[in-house]
């Protein structure tokens, strides 16, 4: 049994501890250079000066730097000159990396109180990953968060180009921040990042072999509930059975009549399969697919899923119908609304050094906009994991065990397909003597872990 101890029990802390398992102790040669970008010392809604180093800025990518990508950079609160550097890509596509700062792994959170029209207030998260790592939170692709295009055509992007833009951003950012070029480097992300992040790792790896400068000290990557392959939805049914949402008799009928195919693009060959899937749709009508125990509330629809939630293509009930439910007060969706109020305040945008007039309205996730401007050309990243493992890069894949959108069963399945030898078999990992999840380590430096009671993100 892996025994991990910390002072507080929370899902974000669970992920923090998992991340510590991934990191190696490395010797770093510090470099001396002046950092560029704009330093943020005060934030509206936070009392007093920020107790950590926050920098914001833009990096232009594309042939004419027509895509201006916004970022938040937070230095490690321990030893920034020696601690790892992480580039964090929030899922989506089209979801702001500010999610990572306040809802996932960053040092801030919104203080929960009933919204009264005033500016939401911020507090400090005790278990931020920035305690032990330098983290760049990148707003990508273009038209995400405060990132913007300088021409009407530049707003359009293809997924393969979006990966290249992330790599281009990183190279340019390191040119401006040479003091971090020798730090151990990791990529991290969740949800849809499971598709593009492994491809970005491949670009970095290829660049290292080609001798591209600055040389990146790539060590590995980590992914939470990552979308990985198109058959992901076929594993939702066993998840629903285990959660008690689908009864055993219906599950057995589905297995018999649908032959294990439940994806939206699958055309049933018999009427009984169609009927069974329609029953499942009804059962999921009021279920939050990102955490089946969370209430179904307003703006959760702003979180796009490249693989649809409904099995037969019927549009799921609008969450806005339940946005005023008293059960939503204090929920993650309720806190999401606070970020919309906060980030659109002119005082906040001035403090963050956002270029005036570049973004009409900040949105936590731009579902509708991204559907019009983002083109999907690949939806399978398994082969990249094979390549990365063969080159000795470390990887941590973790799953919140209550996420229906990317169930832990599907992640287990694609990892098993890699045929890696098991180094440490399925076992508990604990916090203060309590089981916090389960983990298994493989050869080729891959670790899989579940996080008890958690959802897609570490919030």
UniProtKB/TrEMBL annotation:
GO terms for biological process: proteolysis; secondary metabolic process. The keyword Cytoplasm does not apply. One of its GO terms (molecular function) is acyltransferase activity, transferring groups other than amino-acyl groups. Residues 1-33 form the signal peptide. The keyword Signal applies. SUPFAM superfamilies: alpha/beta-Hydrolases (SSF53474). Keywords: Signal. Belongs to the peptidase S10 family. This is Uncharacterized protein.
């Amino acid at each position: 049994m892996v025994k991990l101890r910390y002072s507080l029990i929370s899902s974000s802390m669970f992920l923090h501890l998992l991340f510590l398992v991934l990191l190696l102790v490395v010797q770093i040669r510090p470099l001396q250079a002046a950092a560029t970008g704009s330093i943020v010392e005060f934030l509206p809604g936070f009392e007093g000066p920020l107790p950590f180093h926050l920098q914001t800025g833009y990096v232009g990518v594309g042939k004419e730097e027509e895509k201006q990508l916004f970022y938040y950079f937070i230095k490690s609160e321990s030893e920034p000159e020696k601690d790892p550097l992480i580039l964090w890509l929030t899922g989506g596509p089209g979801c702001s990396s500010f999610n990572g700062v306040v809802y996932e792994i960053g040092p801030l959170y919104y203080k929960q109180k009933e919204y009264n029209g005033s500016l939401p207030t911020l507090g400090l998260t005790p278990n931020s990953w920035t305690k032990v790592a330098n983290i760049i939170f990148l707003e990508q692709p273009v038209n995400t968060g405060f990132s913007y295009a300088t021409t009407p055509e530049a707003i359009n992007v293809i997924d393969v180009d979006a990966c290249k833009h992330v790599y281009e951003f990183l190279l340019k950012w390191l040119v401006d921040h040479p003091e971090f070029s020798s730090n151990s480097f990791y990529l991290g992300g969740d949800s849809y990042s499971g598709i593009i992040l492994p491809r970005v790792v491949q670009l970095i790896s290829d660049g290292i072999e080609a001798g591209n400068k600055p040389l990146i000290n790539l060590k590995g990557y980590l992914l939470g509930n990552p979308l990985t392959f198109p058959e992901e939805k076929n594993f939702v049914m066993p998840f629903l059975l285990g959660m008690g949402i689908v009864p055993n008799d219906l599950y057995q009928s589905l297995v018999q009549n649908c032959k294990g195919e439940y994806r939206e693009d699958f055309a049933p060959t018999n009427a009984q399969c169609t009927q069974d899937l329609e029953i499942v749709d009804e059962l999921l009508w009021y279920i939050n697919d990102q955490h089946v125990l969370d209430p179904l509330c307003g703006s959760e629809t702003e979180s796009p899923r490249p693989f649809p939630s409904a099995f037969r293509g019927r549009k799921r009930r609008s969450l806005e119908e339940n946005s005023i439910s008293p059960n939503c007060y204090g929920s993650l969706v309720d806190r999401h609304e606070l970020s919309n109020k906060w980030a659109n305040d002119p005082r906040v945008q001035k403090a963050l050094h956002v270029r005036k007039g570049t973004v009409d309205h900040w949105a936590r996730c731009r579902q509708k906009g991204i559907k019009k401007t983002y083109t999907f050309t690949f939806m399978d990243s398994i082969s990249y994991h094979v390549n990365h493992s063969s080159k000795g890069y470390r990887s941590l894949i973790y799953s919140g065990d209550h996420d229906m959108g990317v169930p832990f069963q599907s992640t287990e399945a694609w990892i098993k397909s890699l045929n890696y030898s098991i180094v440490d078999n399925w076992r508990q990992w604990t916090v203060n003597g309590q089981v916090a999840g389960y983990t298994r380590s493989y050869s080729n430096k891959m670790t899989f872990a579940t996080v008890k009671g958690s959802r897609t993100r570490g919030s």
